[in-house]
């Protein structure tokens, strides 16, 4: 299945997807970043994947940015759009256009800790476990139907950095698996619920 991946940063999840692309039936058509210095762009170029940069600071509104982003995505006619550390809040119009085709990875056990700084917030809240969630993207921030989660125990001496490292290991395992379910046609979004093999998750 043809896919486009959106990033903003180092692209470690992007790398795990690139490394597993053949096994998970994913044909990565392009990688798009809203930051010109995102290291993930180099990862894509090293894998001979076309890249695009769309600097959000050069757009006066979110709508204008999203319209331009949409034009780039539509050149590739992807069956799946993967948000792998894409740090932009998308407009309702954009999310509606690609509803059911767009997956996001978020470093917390949603619905806990939407938004940023999830690892420190989990520590501050005294959580005994933390983790990662993969969900369909809707116009509600980190609020789409949850597809899968992986749990990490919070250790007594954890810092945000040490916790994030262990969560990242789980991210790299879980995201390719979920993407594979989608590319195989086993995963879909129906009535804002994630459906796998005909069963509601």
Give the radius of gyration.
16 Å
Point out poorly predicted stretches: none
**How many domain units?**
1
Total of helices: 6
Helix content: 25-40%
Q: Overall 3D geometry?
A: globular
CATH class: Alpha Beta
C-alpha end-to-end distance: 23 Å
**Number of β-strand runs:** 10
Mean pLDDT: 97
Encode the helix/strand succession as letters.
Answer: EHEHEHEHEHEEHEEE
Structural commentary:
By secondary structure, the protein is of the alpha/beta class. The chain has a single domain (2-112, 131-151, 168-200), classed as Formyl transferase, N-terminal domain (Rossmann fold, 3-Layer(aba) Sandwich). It is built from 6 helices and 10 strands. It has helices spanning 12-20, 39-46, 62-76, 92-97, 118-124, 160-183, and strands at 2-7, 27-33, 51-53, 80-83, 102-106, 129-136, 146-153, 187-190, 193-196, 199-200. The strands form 2 sheets. The chain has a 7-stranded mixed beta sheet, sandwiched between helices. A 3-stranded antiparallel beta sheet has the order 8-9-10. The model has no long low-confidence stretch (mean pLDDT 97).
